[in-house]
Amino acid sequence: MRKTVLFLWLLLLSAAAAAGEEQIKYYRVDSVKTIKGEVVDIKSETSFHKSDFTVIYLKEKKSGEIYRVEVSPGWFFNMDVMIGSKIEITGSCTVENGVNLVMTRSIAFQGEIFLFRDKYGFPLWRGKRGQPNRGGQGKHRRRGKH
Amino acid sequence: MKKRIVLFIVPLILILIAIFFLNRYTRNKIRAQSEQVTIAEGMTIRNLVEVSGSHLTDEGENALMAFLDNLYRNELIVYIGLFKDKELIRLLSRFEGYFPIVETQKDLHVIDSPIGKIFHIKGAFKDKMGNPFYLHIGYNYDFLSTFEDTLSRNFYIVVILFSIIILFITGLIIYFDKKFFQKELELEREKQEKERFRELSLLTSEIAHEIKNPLNSIYLSFNALEKYLAPREEALFYRDALRGEIRRITAIIQSYSDLSREIYPRIEAVDMAKLAAEFQWMMEGELKKNNAVLTVHVEKDTIFNTDSDLVKQVLLNLVKNAIEADATAVTLTMVLSKKRLDLTVGDNGAGLDEKTAADIFKPYVSTKTRGMGLGLHIVLKILKALDGDIRLVSRSPGNTVFKIEIPRGERM
Q: Would you say the pTM of this structure is higher than 0.80?
């Protein structure tokens, strides 16, 4: 337990350090995969110059590895996910400064799928052509598979 | 009518389908040509980028980055990414982490995105050292989608307006056509009825004329025979009955003669109070026989230009009708003004049902078993000859009221 907490602190520190410098990170269409795991932390952090970006720390079920899952701005994140929730994340997976980084396309939780980006990684919170997205519960959710 | 509607609607639908396909064809054509133009433009940009990039790398990477920053100022650019060999060394994206590059895709291709179509250009160049650089530029050519959307929206607006206008015009045509058609039918029916009535009237008038002479002989012979009758009660009864029937036949024949006869009013100054008094006296016997009372309201010393005989005939027919409808009280009101005479005839008789009331002025319409139904028709005919009019204003049992208007006539 202590080891896990220490590891998590180290991860958070490294992530904070990583967030401080300008990274060239982007949604890689060819590195999309699905990860199943348990939420170990949910934070509001700075990403893409946005201070209220929701970031989930996920412990993968099989390997036990921790992933920093960058989801969406807080106002667009309308899920009842909490620490301990079992979720399935699909997104672009890369390693940035030694941190497993996932840019989320969708999250499957309790039989529902919440979409955050399109298949090329376009952020859905940025709205559609001619109509800005106002967010809100259910705007980007559907039932079924990814 | 249904056939007419189908004849309008089917061509309209066919026109709309034709317009729809024409619009679709035009849109596809415009889209294809616009895409060609965009590709040609993209290729030009790529060539420029490749040449410029190659020169800029000679001046150092900073110059290249400044060039990209400058390029990115263009609002239509969605993202710019620069790879040095396989390493991404510069990314400028307007949307968080959005850089849709797929190795398998062509150097020039189109990506669909929620903000519209994005044209992706990939250019390659080398620096002095021979290091390969790959520049990816995505620019929004959503203007084409906007153009298509506007075209499509305008098309649907035009189609909807066109359909509404066509349907409205069709509706109007059908409505007026129906109305006109119905009116025409009514006029035709009325004409036929008039013709039939005229023929019938001529025939009856002819018959009446033929009967009148022998009937006159019968009446004279009867008067001659009367003095030879024994003064027995039975003989007197048959005498009266025969006289009554002869009078009735005479009256019937007179009615038919009146029906076909043209009426030419003889206008003179008539004292209406006097006319009313004479009429009351004339009806006295008839009223008494039926236990009915006629009350007359008329202003005294009132002179009115009209045909007294015709007015009397009108009143006679109306009052007789009232008596025959079991009325016990009949009211006649005469109101004179400068321009016209208003007559109101009311009674407390049986009244009229709706159907009879609607046709009451038509010939041969009667509620009586023995009547011919010509009385009110003749009234109407007389009033038309006097430029007047008659209306049934109440038909309820116990309160049947006719209102008559006769304009002041011009004396000859």
A: no
